[in-house]
Each structure stands twice: as structure tokens, then as C-alpha cells.
Amino acid sequence: MSRRRPDPSAARLDATVRKILVCQLRQLGDVLLATPSVELLAKRFPGAEIHFFTEKKCAPMLQGNPHITKIWELDKKALPTLLHEFRFYRSIAAEGFDLVVDFQQLPRCRWVVMLSNAPLRLSYPPRWFQRLLYTHYTQPKPGYAAHYKAGVLAPLGITPAGERPALYLSDAERADAAAVLAGLMPKGAPFISVDATHRHPTRRWPAGHYAALMDKLAEADPALHFVLTCGPGEEDYTHDLRLLCRCKDRVHTPPLMPLRTVAALIERAALHLGNCSAPRHMAVAVGTPSFIILGSTGTGWAFPAPEHTQAFLNIHCRPCKKNNCDTIRCLTEFSADEVFPAVLRHLQTYGKAYPHSATT
């Protein structure tokens, strides 16, 4: 860790930190992975307000969080000029924050950090020309992404202790998810939520592989159903995927749902199956076991607990962390035949309210 001023004493921190700003603009999963840090800050400074600066599309990951006083939502469409943006950043900074935590160092985050003039400004080690923006910067230890983020809080005497991402769903959102499911399948039928989409092909297991895997799982358990979730513009992909399945009568494509309804639906699933994207973190946050199929991404996104696991093809070029690839061998050559035994075993061992599950 490098710093330009000594750490204040614990007593001084307790007396001076009354308003905190956390900056994480995007993406959905990354914002959700910042919630353990919010929880840790709330425990360290129980009397302080915690504000969160994020993009409007990511705000649903934070709504209802009892530790967050205010969400500052960046709506780029509502800020047509640089002057409008500057005024918005200045209005955030005018809150008079005592502590700012910047998890991203994007230009818009840096504007807010600079304008805040907060006595304490924490982040990862920045580039040399950005160092004056931060009073403390820390290189966290490698590990689970949410705990890696929380490593930035070390100058405050905060150490992560296994906290998981948190989504605080309302009864109404749970009722909406229940209503969606009631229109899809028999009441009480066990189901797997499936997130088969991704904007980057290097992180998207082929649709034909998902179809073959669901057919094998359906054959192993004739009562099992599957619910395909997706985001805006991905509806055709999930519709076409369903048509590839022999068990299509048990594969369901609900209408596009709000993010928090999707999370409430995942909460009711026996297992979440999918690619490395935001829904895997939602599953952790709502307590649903998960099985994730990795392509170009590394293993640091998995919550360290046996009910959350992942599988990948062990070839020399992964994890490359690239968004494009000519062959995508790590995914195309990772067949459903190879994945099926592990998914079935995980479902039977950890599946929520699932027959033969260790958790039943």
C-alpha cells in the first residue's frame, strides 16, 4: 500500500467519518460485488450515511439495501452535454463526503473524487498521473472478486471475512416472480434457472451445448423444468435455444422481466446454471446454488463455498480474458457430455429443495 499521509487513529475516524461515497459505475455484476464493501463500511461506521454512485441500469442491484442512504444514478441520456455532466458531478460532491471509495477509476468517477475534496479518498493503485486524486491506495490480495474489492478498505482497519453479495428483495418482487412461474409450470415443480446469454462470444457456451445438457438433465429427472432468463434484445436467442431442445415442453422462456424479478425467480430455483455474468452473482446474493461454465474468464468470480462451483476446459490459452476469439475452443470443445455428470451431481448434492439434495 502506498499513501501520502499517515492513517488517522481509529478514534479520529469514528469522530470524523459521517458521510461516505462509494463509486462503482458498472457493470451489473461488479456493482453487486461491491455490496460486501458497503456492509463492511456500515459496520465500521454505524452512524455514517453511505451513498453510492452508479449507472442508472445498475441501480436495481442496490435498491432496498438497508446500508445505503442514497443512490446517485448516472443517466447519460439525461446529461446531453459536458456542462450538464459537470453540474451533476458537482451536486454529488456538494454533499460534503468525509470518505470516498473509488472501485473503478473511470473518468466520471475521477471527476466526483476530485470535486469532493474528501479528507479520505481510497482506491486501487492508480496510474502515476492520477495519484494526487487519492489519499490512500492499496493493492488487494488476489481472491474472490468481492473480497478483492474490499481489500481497498484496508487503510480503515477493515478486513473482509467471507461476506457475500447481498440483494434485498421485496415481498412484491417475490410475488411477481411466483406469478411468472405459475404461468409456466406445475406448482412446486423443481426447476433450474438458465442464463445462456452473453454479449461476448468468448463467455457464452454454445446454445447447442446448453440444449444437449438440458435434454440429459431432463432425462435424468422427468420432473425437472428449466427457465431461460435473458436481457433486453436477447429474447430471440433464448427462444431459438428452446427450439433446439428435445425436452422443449419443460423449457420455458418467460417475457422480459425487471432485473429484480429475475433475481427473485433465481431465488426460487433449485440451481442456477449459466455463463460468467451478473446472474451468477445474483444467485450467490439470494442463496441459490450455482454451476457456471467458464470460457475466457478466470476463476476469481466464484464465491468460495461448495454450493457455488464452476467448470472449464483445461487448455493452455485460457483464461485469456479476451472478448473475441477465432475458434473459442475453450467453449466449443467443452461438450455437454463432459459437463453433465458434474451438473447432475451438484444438483443432487446442493440443489435447493431438490429431491436427494443434501440441503433437503
Q: How would you describe this protein?
A:
The protein is of the alpha/beta class and 360 residues long. The chain is 35% helix and 14% strand. It has helices at 10-16, 28-33, 35-44, 82-93, 107-116, 145-150, 171-182, 207-220, 235-244, 259-268, 278-286, 329-332, 336-350, and strands spanning 2-3, 19-23, 49-55, 70-74, 99-102, 120-123, 136-137, 191-195, 225-228, 251-252, 271-274, 290-293, 308-311. The strands form 2 sheets. Strands 1-7-6-5-2-3-4 form a 7-stranded mixed sheet, sandwiched between helices. The protein has a 6-stranded parallel sheet with strand order 10-9-8-11-12-13, with helices on both faces. Helix 9 (235-244) links the parallel strand 9 and strand 10. The longest helix is centred in the C-terminal third of the chain and has 15 residues, at 336-350. It is elongated. The relative contact order is 0.11.
